[in-house]
Amino acid sequence: MVRVKIGLVIKKGSKEAAVIAHDLAEYGEKDLGLDIYAEADIADEVEWYKRFRLCSDIVDYIVVIGGDGTLLRTLHRMGEHVIPVMTIRVGRRGFLLDVAPFEARSRLRDLVEGRYILRKCLRLQAFLKNHKLPPALNEVAILNWAELRSKVIRLTVYKDNQFIYNVYGDGLIIAPPTGSTAYSLAAGGPILDPELDGYVITPLAPVQLHVRPIVVPSRSKIRILLRSDSAPATCLIDGQYSVAINPGEEIIITSANKPALLVRFTELEFYERIFARTM
Q: Exposed, middle or buried by CB within 10 Å (0-12, 13-18, 19+), for 274?
């Protein structure tokens, strides 16, 4: 019988996450007959002897233990390698993470016995100078450079080569449905129902009164030009990865080729989750 392989990834420096991971590793191997591996960078923290590396070593499932940032960084490192991800929430927040620590063992058993729901989450793919950036689950944000935060940046936005508007302000956020409840929502953008096949363009503090959020189909190609008369800017992916944009350069954004696969164990309604986690 082929043993199911599980890879553990935790928030670095979190003793709570390390304890949960070690307990799951022992339980999975001894009680469930699984092959449990700890990601090489955190294996010493977990005190687990079997190690793997994301993308280069094959596992059947990834279990992420930490917060939203831990999950987003893990997905960035996985790139287009699509592996179902179970999430265990450590800390007060963690909107994207589903499982509470006290139920980690029972949910691991549910996972290997097939009692779960697999959610396919649209991601965005950004390109700068033909260089592919990490796929974004929450958002691609074009922001004024931290050292020049007082400077307005000037952007021209196109959809499928059709002019939409100029944005003069602090920047722009492009978010798929999952990310529409994050930075975009805080900036005044709408919540996108997860069944919508599209994403939202949300301007950040524009000086023009007519410049407002726009929802576009997921098949759209968005081109954002940082105008030559603008201050420099930064492209920030999911709040985790950043790259500088110089005046005259442009960012291309499309739907990513492959979605993120998140393991869920309950039919918790989308709106119930929003209000439960954001209050």
A: middle
Is 170 a residue of the active site? no
Predicted model pTM: 0.93
19 in Cβ contact with 73 (< 8 Å):
no
> Do residue 39 and residue 148 come from a single domain?
no
Distance CA 67, CA 47 (A): 21
> Strand 214-217 vs strand 198-204: parallel, antiparallel, or unpaired?
antiparallel
Question: What are the pLDDT digits (tens) for 149-200?
Answer: 668 999 999 999 999 999 999 999 999 999 999 999 999 999 999 889 999 9
- For residues 247 and 163, membership in a common domain is answered with yes
Question: Does one domain contain both 65 and 142?
Answer: no
Regarding whether 104 and 37 lie in a shared domain, the answer is yes
Range of the domain at 251: 124-255
- Contacts of residue 232, defined as CB under 8 A and 6 or more positions apart, other chains included, come to 145, 148, 153, 226, 244, 245, 246, 247
Q: CB of 194 within 8 A of CB of 181?
A: no
What gap in Å lies between CA 158 and CA 76, rounded to an integer?
26
Q: Which of 23, 35, 44, 68 is catalytic?
A: 68
